[in-house]
Structure formats: C-alpha cells, structure tokens
Amino acid sequence: MREKMVEVQIAGRGIRDLKVLEALRGVPRDAFVPEDLKGLAYADEPLPIGHGQTISQPYIVAYMTEVLELKGGESVLEIGTGSGYQTAVLARIVKEVWTVETVAALSEGAQALLNGLGFTNIRFKIGDGTFGWTEFAPFDAIMVTAAPGIIPKALKDQLRVGGRMIVPVGIEDQQLVLIRRDETSFLETRLLPVRFVPLISVH
Ligand code: SAH
Known about the structure:
alpha/beta, Rossmann fold, 7-stranded mixed sheet, two-stranded antiparallel ribbon, globular, binds S-adenosyl-L-homocysteine
C-alpha cells in the first residue's frame, strides 16, 4: 500500500526528487495514525491525530519536502511535530532534525515512536515554535506545519543565508509560501493554496 501511495499520489502527481520518494517509501505512515484509522493510513488525505490536530496529506508532506531542495547534509528545523510523520521523512533525508511542538502529549508520543523506529538524528522540544530554537540556529532549512497569520520574524532570523523555509501562511485563505534567504533579502514565492491547523502562539 505504501508503494502504491508513492506511485499514484506522489510520483504520479509530479514529485520527482528521488530522495523524497525514497523517504516516503521508507516511513510506515500507518504507525503514525490512530488505531481506528489504520485502514486509511495510505489514503490521499489528512487524518485526525487527537488534540484537535492532524497528520498532513502524504502529497503535501512530499511537496513541502521537495521544495526545500535538500541534499543530505542539512540541519533542519521543523515547527509542529504532531504525529512525527513529517519529522521521519525529513530525518531519512538530512543529517539532523530539530522539531518543536506545543502539545506535550503529541511531542512525547512522536518521540517514543521515532525512537522505536530507530531514528537517532532527531531532537525534540516542547514549546512555542513561533520562536524557533535559538540555541541551534541557524538552520539550513525550516519547515512549518501549522499556519501563522504572518511569518514569525524569529524563524526568518534563524534561517541560514542561502537557506529555504516552507510555511503555510494565512488565517482564512492560506497559501504555502517558500522563502529563500540571500545575503541581503528574503525572497518570497507563493506556491499553492492549502489548509493547515493554525500555529497557536501563547503570546
Ligand atoms: N507535521 C505534522 C502536522 C501536525 S499539525 C504531522 O504530519 O503529523 C500541526 C502541529 O503543529 C500540531 O501538532 C500542533 O499542536 C502544532 N503547533 C501548533 N502551534 C504550534 C506552535 N506555536 N509551536 C509548535 N507547534 C505548534
């Protein structure tokens, strides 16, 4: 089912990066969805994971990973650990993943699951990802999987020059925005309309 998902929903819709396709082939999505929804683990849709949150649609996971143009040696910051599925996909491609989640139970669940699957290159933090993870910045790439109204300044500041960030932006109408940082500026490209849960900031 996983092979078929990659062939039909991912490669079939234009994702070409072999590292991304390999990563999706390698991560058992069924391990990241609740017991009663296992039968839908390879369906073309997001699914509820409790605490009012969702595991993203596989295609969106692949798309957001591909636009970061990862080569393998990167250090990546992820905001919104959730189920940990996207974290696993990133961790199969890059050197290290730093992931921040506000809901303690989700972070702890993802941590147990990913450790159990044998990942050793992921570091977890429970807290507000709006502020990134200063101690380990700058990052080669940043992926945000919950939608802020505007792009948090702290995250832009923590992006390395030459780095890329992908983030869904907006309250009602959301757009996936790709940001590329060069020596002097941040270049923003709107990619496609999406629907993510909001990035909750306690401040
Ligand atoms: N990548 C995850 C998506 C989970 S949904 C997956 O595929 O499973 C988005 C996640 O962002 C939720 O778990 C939510 O609790 C978390 N979140 C919301 N606001 C946040 C914030 N300010 N900082 C960190 N995580 C946040």
